[in-house]
Specification:
Length: 339
């Protein structure tokens, strides 16, 4: 797979693309295209888990145990080499002591001496190679540096001045390769470490740029609930107080709430009140048989039930009063109301 980069909010974001079909079969569509932001975060979390103080401490303990066992095995190899050297020297002495005129015995002893020399040489080379490949014991200063890596690694990785090439070098020191496969269930990631260990995970496919700017489902549901009792402006203030943000990450305004309401076809506060039988001012005045001034007087003293239905102007919807409320209104105005 090849890597491509695109800029988002001033930051380079990678995408991993397989173009084998396009190259070999001249197909227009790539084999698979995987957004890399989720993959990068997964690799960072995996490295953070791998380079944690506990893991490093265990690794150092394991190394000490392996070194101890190697020393024990090395002592056995040294004794075996000493035994082979003794046998070689014994064969040499036998060859030197044989009568030169006895050619058959001399040839047999010489062949035995050469065989034992070859075995000794092979064992010595094997011993030297294993000694070179075995890690020597770490000093206390080296151990401190390794343990400090665990606490410094997150800061180094997340620091804005750390270039991407240095992050890649860090990854290459720990990880051999990663295999990505995108399917209907998500993105399958199989990571192979330098030592041969593997780690597999299934990641969800990240949202596209357009989907990422959409309002969250829970926020839309909350707006739908709040519309039963609040206007768009009041809902925006409530959402901001509760710390919610729009899809692009901005604060809510009554215009943003109105756009969300229109996009998701939510009934407005006005329509909901009208569906419940509430009347506008022009309908309520003849219903009560009062003037515009008297209606305002009744509303100001909470003698009639009025609900705000708009944001920018004083538009109210009124609930039809009950018989008991009509009597209270009549007594307050001391006038005869139209029934």
């Amino acid at each position: 797979m090849t890597v491509r980069y695109h800029s988002r909010k001033g930051k380079l974001i990678p995408d991993y693309v397989c173009q084998k079909r396009k190259i070999e079969r001249c197909e227009s569509k790539a084999c698979q295209h995987i957004p890399g932001a989720t993959i990068e975060q997964f690799i960072f979390d995996l490295l953070l888990e791998t380079i944690s103080p506990v893991v490093l401490e265990v690794a150092l303990s394991v190394q000490d145990e392996l070194l101890k066992r190697f020393k024990e095995t090395n002592e056995l190899r040294e004794k075996h080499l000493e035994r082979l050297q003794y046998e070689v020297e014994l064969s040499r002495q036998r060859y030197l002591c044989v009568d030169p005129n006895n050619r058959l015995v001399a040839a047999s002893l010489e062949a035995d001496w050469n065989d034992k020399m070859r075995v000794l040489t092979d064992r010595q080379q094997e011993y030297e190679k294993q000694s070179r490949d075995t890690t020597s014991k770490l000093s206390d200063e080296q151990r401190k540096e390794i343990m400090s890596l665990a606490s410094n690694f997150p800061k180094l990785w997340s620091h804005p001045d750390t270039p991407d090439r240095e992050r890649k070098r860090i990854v290459r020191l720990v990880i051999e390769d990663a295999t990505l496969h995108k399917n209907i269930n998500g993105i399958s990631v199989d990571v192979r470490f330098k030592g041969g260990a593997t780690h597999s995970a299934m990641l969800s496919v990240p949202l596209s740029a357009g989907e990422g700017r959409k309002t969250r489902v829970e926020v839309v549901k909350l707006i739908d609930q709040l519309l039963d009792c609040h206007t768009d402006l009041e809902i925006a203030e409530i959402l901001n107080e509760r710390g919610f943000e729009t899809g692009p990450g901005n604060q809510f305004t009554f215009g943003a709430v109105a756009r969300i309401r229109a996009a998701y076809k939510l009934k407005s506060r006005y329509d909901r009140l009208r569906n419940q039988g509430f009347l506008i001012r022009e309908e309520m005045i003849p219903k009560l048989g009062v003037t515009y001034t008297q209606l305002n007087w009744l509303q100001g003293r909470n003698l009639i039930c009025a609900h705000r239905a708009a944001n920018t102007r004083k538009q109210f919807l009124y609930q039809i009063p009950s018989k008991k409320q009509l009597k209270t209104i009549r007594d307050s105005l001391s006038i005869n109301l139209v029934s």
